[in-house]
Write a structure and sequence with these properties.
The complex is a heterodimer of chains A (about 500) and B (about 220).
Chain A (H helix, E strand, L loop, with lengths): L1 H11 L3 H18 L4 H9 L8 H26 L8 H12 L3 H35 L3 H13 L1 H4 L4 H15 L2 E2 L6 E2 L13 H18 L16 H9 L2 H15 L5 H16 L11 H25 L5 H12 L13 H24 L12 H20 L2 H19 L4 H24 L11 H26 L2
Antiparallel strand pairs in A: 1-2
Chain B lengths: L1 H11 L2 H20 L8 H18 L6 H8 L6 H21 L6 H17 L3 H8 L5 H26 L1 H15 L4 H22 L11
Helix pairs in contact in B: 2-3, 8-9, 9-10
Classes of the chains: A mainly alpha (about 500), B mainly alpha (about 220).
């Protein structure tokens, strides 16, 4: 373990990863600060460009965009009340009122310091618990991987904000799309119309580009004028922002742990973690009435949970190949594209790569802190870029990037087709993340199901005959029938 | 009478209905087609296709379902609902403050609220402003918004076709120029963006050593 850690440090110190780390954080802050763009879109657009990079640098670049994007989302949230990312929605609640009170710089400094500390605490924790993660991941075989994939699909119940049936239909549609191409274990082409371009199936990275880039641009096209519609005078004090955060270590630790814990639940994501953290800060505060009117604790809770979600979300992504959010789905695409298979390998033979990514995330927080505190009074410029300048360039990047994935026109059609479908799915509250989970988890579920049945000569008992499998089965059942039972209880309690 | 019925029906058909019909057609096709596959490769797609078909059918028929069933269909599965309820109050407070001080474009969420408001107003009577809009010759902001989204979708489709015909390298500047011209950018922004699009694709060609300058009609 220590060998892997020292090897990871030497990888980082070669210099190139540090460059990509800085570039990634800066791109992340840029895309994150533009409302409607966000980290997942930025990562999806950059993904095809990482092809010439080696695996470690590519993943460090992507994970740094993710980290920078999470922080960047708070800039527009604080200055404009328009969160750059959905994860920053909780930040608007107290961040924007602080800006209106002439404390924009204080709020931005608090956001930078709280994000950084949240990231620090959880990355160190992730490195500390990684030996246990390694042991846990190595316990998993094909039956457990199938069950974990099934658990991920059952998570659609959590992801499906609004109607559960809409969420299920979205997830199932994703699973259906994932069945296109060669079947696992049996030489059978499915739904390919004899076209060789479809033999490898639909690229889920192309699907992500369509869903995050094209769909988002169509949505953004309906918003008149620039991204920023208001002018905010940026005043306040960096020092008071920093000291306000440093005097609340317990709140930061608690919010960071909430962020990491919820971030590790596939499908829950940073939007949920920031709101839960905010609600917990409100519940435990001595002054709950001032929440929503510029309470420092509210902003700190949301921001420290925000960046703390990232290490949490890497746990299911790296361990089982189950993304916790759109951004981790793109990251997963990056891992696969660069020949890094999530699962036991990333915690055994490739452990130094995993640690290098963790260390990069740790160091990335320094960049966030530096950029956040140095360019604080100029942050507003980022939010004033006209939407109509961004839209055509992103469409070009998305379409060309889609083609570059496999030099395949099917991927271009996927980008366009799922872009249009994704726009209407969002518009009518069909969970796009459930759809993404379906596309990602479909092949994992089907392949491991077939392999397990081969191992057990067709007996389904293989899925319940050991304690680990049984625990996962119980979790799946609880998640599947949980919402229904909750509904009944709700009705009975009036 | 029947003419007004059919007009009512066509007015009630939304893009969601088309989306659901599309899902029904795709899942039905995949269910039938999967029956031809060698065992066991057809089992998984058939299972998934049947759930997709049933789910889409239930959603399509939602308005015709009895009230208790309709409640089940619209039931939220989000286990974090309770937290959202807790902070709803705070959000409402913040929005109130925002409304008092700024006059901004609606966000996506507030636009959805607008949708709901529109349907509610259909029953209760529209606001003065909306009445004015409905009688105005100018398109309403909402219609203009939808129009812009539709035009971007069509332009993107055209761009994809153009890439196939004349290559990414030449189609990208054409698309960016057309979009910039349509949204009435200043000439220097249009020129800058057009050159930028060409530069991006040219950069990709150099960086990744991929042929992006040949289409069916060019190269």
């Amino acid at each position: 373990m220590l060998d892997a850690l020292s090897e990871a440090i030497s990888i980082i110190l070669t210099g190139e990863p540090l460059l990509w780390l800085t570039v990634g954080i800066l791109i992340g802050i840029f895309v994150g600060s533009l409302p409607g763009i966000g980290a997942s879109l930025g990562m999806a657009l950059i993904l095809p460009l990482t092809l010439p990079l080696d695996g470690v640098n590519a993943i460090i670049l992507l994970v740094s965009i993710y980290s920078g994007g999470m922080y960047g989302g708070s800039i527009a949230a604080i200055l404009l009340n328009a969160p750059g990312t959905s994860a920053a929605a909780a930040t608007t609640l107290d961040g924007y009122p602080l800006s209106r009170q002439g404390q924009a710089i204080t709020a931005l400094a608090m956001s930078a310091v709280a994000s950084t500390l949240g990231g620090f605490i959880t990355i160190v924790l992730l490195i500390l618990i990684s030996p246990f993660l390694v042991r846990m991941v190595l316990l998993f075989g094909s039956p457990q991987y199938f069950l974990i994939a099934l658990l991920g699909i059952a998570m659609i119940a959590i992801v499906a904000r609004g109607s559960l049936i809409r969420g299920v239909v979205s997830g199932m549609f994703g699973l259906l799309i994932a069945t296109i191409g060669m079947a696992p274990m049996v030489p059978q082409q499915r739904f390919t119309f004899g076209d060789p371009a479809l033999f490898d199936g639909i690229s889920f990275v192309a699907a992500l580009i369509g869903l995050f880039a094209i769909a988002e641009m169509i949505n953004l096209a309906g918003e008149e004028g620039g991204v920023a519609q208001t002018d905010m005078e940026i005043t306040g004090s960096i020092r008071s922002g920093i000291s306000s955060v440093l005097t609340k270590p317990y709140l930061i630790a608690k919010s960071s742990l909430i962020g990491m814990g919820i971030g590790s639940v596939p499908g829950a994501g940073s939007t949920v973690s920031t709101f839960v953290s905010y609600a917990e800060a409100l519940r435990s505060s001595d002054d709950p009435d001032s929440f929503g009117a510029g309470n420092h604790e509210g902003l700190i809770a949301a921001e420290s949970a925000n960046n703390a979600t990232i290490p949490g979300s890497l746990i299911p992504t790296f361990s089982f190949g189950i993304p916790g959010s759109g951004s981790t789905a793109v990251l997963l695409g990056g891992l696969i594209m660069h020949g890094l298979q999530p699962g036991p390998n990333l915690f055994s033979s490739d452990l130094q790569i995993t640690y290098a990514v963790f260390i990069a995330l740790f160091l990335g927080n320094f960049v966030i802190l530096f950029v956040g505190l140095t360019f604080i009074s100029r942050m507003g410029v980022l939010t004033k870029i006209d939407t109509d300048i961004i839209i055509p360039m992103i469409v070009v990047l998305a379409v060309v990037g889609g083609f570059l994935l496999r030099i395949n026109w099917i991927d271009v059609l996927t980008v366009f087709g799922l872009g249009i479908i994704g726009y209407y799915m969002k518009r009518y509250n069909y969970s796009v993340i459930a759809f993404v989970l379906g596309i990602v988890l479909g092949p994992i579920a089907e392949e491991n199901f077939a392999r397990s049945l081969t191992l057990s000569d067709g007996s389904l008992m293989i899925f319940v005959n050991d304690p680990l499998s049984l625990i996962i089965v119980i979790a799946i059942v609880a998640l599947t029938i949980g919402p229904a039972i909750r509904g009944v209880f709700k009705k009975q309690l009036g | 009478m029947s003419e007004s019925n059919s007009r009512n029906l066509s007015q009630r058909i939304t893009a969601e209905h088309i989306l659901l019909i599309g899902l029904l057609v795709v899942s039905a096709y995949m269910f039938v087609e999967a029956a031809e596959f060698r065992d066991p490769s057809g089992m998984f797609p058939r299972f998934i296709a049947s759930i997709t078909f049933l789910g889409a059918l239930v959603l399509l028929l939602e308005p015709f379902l009895p009230a208790p069933l309709r409640a089940v269909v619209s039931e939220s599965g989000d286990v974090f609902d309770s937290y959202e309820e807790e902070i709803e109050e705070v959000e409402a407070q913040t929005e109130e403050m925002d409304d008092m001080t700024t006059d901004r474009e609606p966000t996506v969420d507030s636009k959805e609220e607008c949708d709901n408001e529109t349907s509610a107003e259909a029953v209760t009577g529209a606001t003065d402003e909306r009445q004015f809009e409905s009688h105005s010759i100018l398109p309403s902001p909402r219609a203009a918004m939808e129009n812009k989204r539709f035009v971007l979708s069509v332009m993107t489709a055209g761009y994809v076709v153009l890439c196939y015909l004349i290559s990414f390298l030449f189609a990208s500047p054409v698309f960016v120029f057309a979009y910039s011209y349509w949204v009435d950018h200043d000439w220097y922004i249009t020129v800058g963006l057009t050159a930028g699009a060409f530069g991006i694709v040219y950069g990709f060609m150099g960086l990744l050593n991929v042929q992006l300058n040949s289409g069916v009609l060019v190269g």
